[in-house]
Specification:
This protein has 525 residues and is an alpha/beta fold. It is 33% helix and 24% strand. The strands form four sheets. The protein has a seven-stranded parallel beta sheet, sandwiched between helices.
């Protein structure tokens, strides 16, 4: 009999479902790390919320573990890469607590506008400081939403019910989807300049970390109020404290913090701060929903092999997996490459297959391409829900399977049409195993992707390669491979440089300022 461990406090419904499906389940919330390591080897599945930390040493001890299920959205507490290396499937339940989290953001918005927590404490202390607590109306005010995905769009709808004007910044939000939601799509600097309130609903990625910085606050209206029910780390807490103390920021409502549990924080004790202990998903309805979902998903996987909401594995049959595995890697790399170059709303995605790959099941490959394309700015997208996420954002996705044979025995081509331009990238397999990019933006190139890369577009002029190599060398950055391509002599050219360490922002700025450089991007795979 398969065995599952529930290691965090969870609705009893989860254990009921496991037992009803014939799965042996143990409920042991509150285990220490050492206690978890001591027993995890006896389980096939692990169901967690946010308290259990699934680290590489826990996974090393999990000799029989096949699947981890997160009852909720975020998987910050699970080392997904280590789980993948161990062959452990990681699943989440991305939609079970969306309404609850959005409602908490609205509650924080109202509490902040009317100073409810502080007024409550004052009144219950026997004071009657009516004149002290002068709030502001939400009616007619502008709410700026950063991240207008599943939760952000619900917040927008609720805010419109309060007669607020809603503007939104989201690189993946199309104009059509914005119109459907009734929000105005703006750039980030425009949002900072116009918003009376700002609510964050974006994942924590390299692109969004510290998005509310000292510089960002300086660009905002005097008296701005900031709400964060998304992820700790989106807000520079030191900069926010200084702005709250100076009055530049009138108030902040925070449900998440850079370090959690937040027993001690620079923002605690400030009179214009509302703080809650990561309660965004804490309603009885949401907890029941995610518990039921995670139990059903783990049971399906362990008993039948069905895969739902997997973060590190596509929906595949046992027969298809060996044939598609190398193509999966190629598809993911093509998507990630295009996604890291995309900075504006995506209108349309075209995925083309020709040669040997056209004879295979291309649907999971398209899902992997979309997952790679959307993942740079979204932490909840996976191979299973990527098509749904694209549809929700009004991104038109076309899949074209050609019966022709081109220059390569097998080829996948991705074209991304945004509000400003159209870009394409193509890749093939060498020896039917090794992914290679062979064409980027209509420029022929042969490049193998690595963990850290530098992508540069430039005018094809003498001296560029030498200048770039000298700059990287002087910075102590070692070049592993250097791939070049150009459209025509003295025309547009590009370079894909594999380096041994990440290219930091300061060095990237120097690369961008080199003569003849049009664009420079640091990429990670």
């Amino acid at each position: 009999m398969v065995k599952v461990l529930i290691s965090d406090k969870m609705s009893p419904k989860a254990a009921e479902i496991f037992r009803g499906r014939g799965v042996d389940v143990d409920e042991k919330p509150g285990l220490s790390k050492d206690e978890l390591i001591a027993i995890i080897g006896g389980y096939d599945g692990l169901a967690v919320r946010s308290a259990t930390k699934v680290t590489p040493d826990v996974l090393e001890a999990a000799t029989n573990l096949k699947v981890i299920g997160r009852a909720g959205i975020g998987v910050d507490n699970i080392d997904v890469a280590a789980a993948t290396n161990k062959g452990v499937v990681v699943m989440n339940t991305p939609f079970g607590n969306s309404i609850t989290t959005a409602e908490h953001a609205i509650a924080m918005l109202l509490a902040l506008a009317r100073q409810i927590p502080e007024a409550n404490a004052s009144t219950q202390a026997g004071k009657w400081e009516k004149s002290r607590f002068m709030g502001v109306e939400l009616f007619g005010k502008t709410l700026g939403i950063i991240g207008c995905g599943n939760i952000g769009s619900i917040v927008a709808e609720r805010a419109q019910g309060l007669a607020m004007k809603v503007i939104a910044y989201d690189p993946f939000l199309t104009q059509e989807r914005a119109q459907e939601l009734g929000v105005e799509k703006v750039e980030l600097d425009g949002l900072f300049a116009r918003a009376d309130f700002i609510s964050l609903h974006t994942p924590l990625t390299d692109a969004t970390r510290g998005i509310i910085s000292a510089e960002a606050i300086a660009a905002m209206k005097d008296g701005i109020r900031i709400i964060n029910c998304a992820r700790g780390g989106l807000v520079d807490e030191t900069a926010l404290k200084a702005a709250l103390e100076s009055g530049r920021v009138a108030g902040a409502a925070l449900d998440v913090f850079t370090e959690e549990p937040a027993k001690d924080n620079a923002l605690f004790g400030l009179p214009n701060v509302v703080a809650t202990p990561h309660l965004g998903a804490s309603t009885s309805e949401a907890q029941v929903n995610v518990a039921i979902q995670v139990a059903e998903q783990l049971s399906d996987f362990l008993l039948t092999g069905g895969i739902t909401n997997a973060l590190n594995m596509p929906s595949l049959s046992a027969e298809e997996a060996p044939k598609l595995r190398p193509y999966m890697k190629l598809a993911q790399e093509i998507g990630q490459f295009a996604g890291q170059l995309t900075e504006t709303g995506i209108r349309r995605v075209i995925i083309e297959y020709e040669g040997a790959v056209a004879e295979l099941n291309t649907r999971p490959l398209s899902a992997v391409v979309l997952e790679g394309l959307l993942s740079p700015l979204m932490d909840t997208v996976n191979m299973v829900n990527a098509p749904i996420v694209a549809k929700e954002r009004a991104i038109e996705v076309s899949e074209v399977v050609h019966d022709r044979v081109g220059d390569y025995h097998t080829l996948i081509k991705l074209t991304v049409e945004t509000e400003q331009r159209s870009r394409s990238v193509s890749g093939t397999l060498f020896a039917n195993q090794s992914p290679r990019l062979v064409c980027v933006m209509d420029v022929q190139i042969e490049a193998e992707l690595s963990e850290n890369m530098l992508f540069v577009t430039n005018d094809d002029k003498p001296g560029f390669i030498g200048n770039l190599g000298t700059l990287l060398g002087n910075a102590g950055v070692n070049i592993a491979t250097f791939s070049l391509g150009r459209s025509e002599a003295r025309g547009a050219a590009l370079a894909l440089v594999s380096v041994d360490e990440p290219v930091n922002p300061a060095l990237l700025a120097k690369v961008a300022s080199l003569p003849h450089v049009r664009q420079a991007k640091a990429l990670r795979f």
